[in-house]
Amino acid sequence: MQMGVSKNELRGMSRLAVLSLALLFGGCASVSKVATGDAVVGERMTLKLDTAWNQFGAAMTNNIPTWTVEGVTVDALQFYVGIKDGQRLAETSSAEKSQKPLIFKSGMQPADVVSLYEAMLTRDGSSFQLEKLEPAEFLGGTGFRFEYSLNRKVDDVPMRGLAYGAVRKGELFVIHYSAPRLVFFPRYVGRVEGLVRSAQLRS
Q1: What is the mean pLDDT of each run of 10 residues along the chain (203 residues)?
Q2: CA 40, 165, 70 angle in degrees (round to 5)?
Q3: pLDDT of residue 62
Q4: Range of the domain at 23
């Protein structure tokens, strides 16, 4: 794989950095610190953090708990906790009303969940390529893990993402991470994998 950074990627990452700073300091988003130690997400999922994260307010992230290191427009760690049968994975904007609703069904197989994520991530015209889908330990039992590449249309930045998921008692639980494919994804993917290994559901 080519490890150099293209001019387009450099320009895209520069725009991302500027936008993140504007959001952080321009009063457009509320940001709080998630400290090291034990954390609870969505009142159902517990995690152990070796390093701190920044958490963006619900208004900016469609009520999906979202953490970041560099800024939510750069890297984003999202938690889908207890998505019930018939519940939307994401709300549809007015510009997307003609698109198929992103609804989870409890009988979905891992490939179906991946297709749901693909539909969500490409609503804006971005291009998605599944790289890997395999069984994985998650939340104390068998789940699945997938990796993908995405060319984000809004700024033409090549992205990389991974997610761990499982269906427990008819509910979907997913930890999803995405970041620019060069520099940021390899920098933080190890941190994300460690956090996923610590994830448990409250009894």
Answers
A1: 48 48 49 93 95 81 88 90 94 60 94 96 95 97 97 93 97 98 95 97 88
A2: 60
A3: 76
A4: 7-201
pTM: 0.84
* The pLDDT of residue 147: 98
58 close to 109: Cβ distance less than 8 angstroms: no
78 domain-assigned: yes
User: Which letter does DSSP use for residue 110 in this model?
Assistant: H
Q: How high is the pLDDT of residue 20?
A: 45
Residue 1 lies in a domain: no
Q: Is residue 2 part of a domain?
A: no
Task: Report the CATH number at residue 113.
Answer: 3.40.1000.10
pLDDT of residue 25: 42
The sign of the torsion formed by the CA atoms of 186, 191, 197, 200 equals negative
DSSP secondary structure letters along 121-167: HTTTS-EEEEEEEEEEEETTEEEEEEEEEEEETTTTEEEEEEEEEEE
Q: Is 33 part of a structural domain of the chain?
A: yes
Burial (CB count within 10 angstroms: exposed 0-12, middle 13-18, buried 19+), residue 48? middle
Structurally, the chain folds into a number of domains equal to: 1
Residue 126, Cβ density class (10 Å: 0-12 exposed, 13-18 middle, ≥19 buried): middle
Q: Which residues contact 39 (CB under 8 A, 6 or more apart)?
A: 46, 47, 48, 49
